[in-house]
Amino acid sequence: MTETVCLPCGPILGSDIRIDTVLLQRIIDGPCPIYVEVRGRETAPALVLLLGLGMQLDEWPRPFLDKLARHFRVVCIENRDMGRSGRCGPDKNAQDAALGGHASQVAYSLFDMRDDVMRVTRELNLPRFAVVGFSMGGMIAQLVAAKAGDRLTAFAQICSSAGEAEAPIPAVTMKRFERVAKGFETDAEMVAHLADDLIWCAAPSPVSPSEAVDLATAMQKSGFTTGGYGRQLSAITSSGDRTEYLQRITAPSLVIGAEQDRCILPESSHRAHALIERAELKMFSHTGHSLEAYILDDLEMWLLGALGLSP
């Protein structure tokens, strides 16, 4: 099933309304410690959320998480090498042979990041769960969904790939990503570059310069490092062909794409839709690589329907 949705652009960060729904903050031990936040009732259906390259948990719009927590036990995972999770190398300047280099030279792969997620689900005693991933998080979610088997209740990816061996990232975007991985002389220089990237990647979705600077400053203060960013980028570029894993996903699935996505080629969403059995596809027009409120509202309604829950 394919659907193209045409909607006006909305704000990337959502409203300022905040409800304190965090019930648990925890570090999950393992090869790389993973920070998690859990919202919602312990008896509610579990939903695991995964973010993209260089992103931190605070980048999930808070109103979205609060709404989900009314229906789900929401498990937000901070990927290794970012935010409050553990580091897998130096905090600065991961621009080395790992970027686009030989697989033996990289610190870890998307499969290792998948195993982080599986470890979290075991430690939190989640016998069954749904998983949603944005961008790189969608790539990890694909591998989680393939491995989880009957434990998986639903799967969704937003602005992500189809498991291609060569990441479907345009050359101009890859240059931007590699520039971040090289590191910066000062925090101010890093914030300025990250803010510019936030605006550029989200276009045509609107992000104002002041909003972008505020978000980039928050990222820098809460654990963003160029070393972690570079190693995550290496995981994306060196994890090989994963298309067969998408074909193993049998749970209800939704592929969401953005027709003006500058970071991951939109046609990759179409390829993912073709690979995943009985998946639905929704392509949003006038939308860039961003967590728009209208996309997340649509995702919430799909999740409720897929799991047979009342709105």
Task: Give your account of this protein's structure.
It holds the Pfam family Abhydrolase_1. GO terms for molecular function: triacylglycerol lipase activity. Strands 1-9-8-7-6-4-5-3-2 form a 9-stranded mixed beta sheet, with helices on both faces. It is globular, with a radius of gyration of 18 Å. The longest helix has 16 residues, at 187-202. The chain contains 10 helices and 9 strands. Helices cover 37% and strands 17% of the residues. It has a domain at 2-87 and 109-168 and 241-306: 3-Layer(aba) Sandwich (Rossmann fold), CATH 3.40.50.1820.
Q: Please state the second-level CATH architecture of the domain at 2-87 and 109-168 and 241-306.
A: 3-Layer(aba) Sandwich
Order of helices and strands: EEEEHEHEHEHHHHHEHEH
Query: What distance lies between the first and last C-alpha atoms, to the nearest angstrom?
Result: 22 Å
Major sheet strand order:
1-9-8-7-6-4-5-3-2
Catalogue the unreliable spans.
1-19, 94-104
Radius of gyration: 18 Å
The CATH class label of the domain at 2-87 and 109-168 and 241-306 is Alpha Beta
Report the principal-axis shape.
Answer: globular
**Count of DSSP H/I helices:** 10
CATH topology of the domain at 2-87 and 109-168 and 241-306: Rossmann fold
What is the percent of helical residues? 25-40%
Bin the strand percentage. Answer: 15-25%
For CATH, the homologous superfamily of the domain at 2-87 and 109-168 and 241-306 is named as Alpha/Beta hydrolase fold, catalytic domain
Task: Tell me the total number of β-strands.
Answer: 9
- Structural class computed from helices and strand pairing: alpha/beta
